[in-house]
Amino acid sequence: MAVAAFLLMGCTGKAAQAPEESMQPADTTYTLQAAMAVYDYDPVRALQIIDSAVIMGNLSEVRGDFFRSRIYAWSVMGQTVDSLLHGPEGVRFDSARVVGERLLAHDSLKMNIGLHQDVLEVLVCVARQQQDTARWLRRSQELVEVCHRQGDDAEPEALRTEAEVGAVLCAMGQRERGMARLDSVIAILDSREHRQFNWLDATIIALKRKINVLSNEEKYVETLPLARRIIDRLDDYEQHPQDYHDGTYREPADSTARADYIHFYRTQMQSRLTAAYATLGEQGSVEDVYEQIERSVRDVTAREHIARYHALEQQMLRQEAESRSQMMAFVAVASVSGLLVILLFTAYLFFQKRRIQQKNRVLARMIESGQGTVSTPADEKPGAEANSVASDQRSSASLSTINYSLFTQMDSAIRSERLYANPTFQRQDACEHFNLRREVLNQLLTDFADGQSFPAYINSIRLSEACRLLSDQPAMTVNAIAEEVGLTPRNLRRLFVDQYGMTPSEFREQREQN
Question: pTM of this prediction?
Fold first, then answer.
């Protein structure tokens, strides 16, 4: 049957063609495809073909075990499989469980989440058939977690299994929790506005789980609206199959399979309706039955509206919590990153300043040491006069070289670090920044800055930088340039007139003409 073949397919939709089976020889009958072709009417032959395919290397041992467990669990000819296993009725379920649990411990499942999901589906089915509620609940919860790990694409699978969990809870005597879970799943599925087969199938399964629970409790009246909803959805699918096409593995492959699918579930629901009406007919007149049905429909509808509201409310709360968590994580990362950048920059400035100070202290000591060697001791003998003069000349040359190196470094630092841009930058600031005594700084300016005073020296640097900006930055205003070099517009104008006999604007025009 098409529905039985449909059940054999795993969550990945590749049960009929796993990676290692895709390269099977076309000229042999011992393939997975050959086994599945006879599965419906001859499960024994299908198992024999799988055994042969494993022996010939057409199928791995793990995949062979996986499909054996499926045939054991979902065979429509259960008595034939029980007979093959030489056991009592239902022994096939024990075999399926043993094989499935062995597969769960296999390393390949850790790397193949789809296969992991497929094996759990088998174990859930077996536990349901055996009414082993403890295993049924545990495997269903594991299956929900595995589905969620696969993201949004597996959401219908997760909701199917959530409905399974609700049914298990009801079977375990936790009816309130179980029905709340079922109603929540149905509400979420009903909130889907677009037609998609995978979601349609998940809705049918969830409604069917709830119908089974209500039937077991002999609450037939409440099953009527649920069964009719399934029939209505099947009718819509039958009339508009293309609207439901989503390319998922659960979707029937052709019109024949689609007709089998619709007939399978429609027949089940019609049987439910017939049984419910027959039971209700024994309880009183037609009017009483009709009133019970109407009251049941109203009650069920009200409960489902409440469940949908709670489901949407929980979904909104989860989204808000996720948004807050993401925002807090972003703020935390941004704060830590900003603090790290500030610390690194501060450390860089500290070590840079320390390096310059150390270098300046060394140069200052060298200067002072050189100055001490220039003078001639009073008790030096006249016979050493020539040697003393030569020594003094070498010391003066060395001192001059050291002083020039120190001035060059200071001048370069003032320009590169833009110390001149500070309008309040004064002599004392320079002494502290470069770790120099005032006398040494004055001597450097006398020797290498044409004897300028410190203010005149700084203004000459500012004037030089202003000339560059006037030439290179035509869009920059004179006032902006003055601020950039640490002067007021008035002082900049005065310096230009004194130095060049023209204003900054005239200087710029002259450069542009040239």
Answer: 0.50
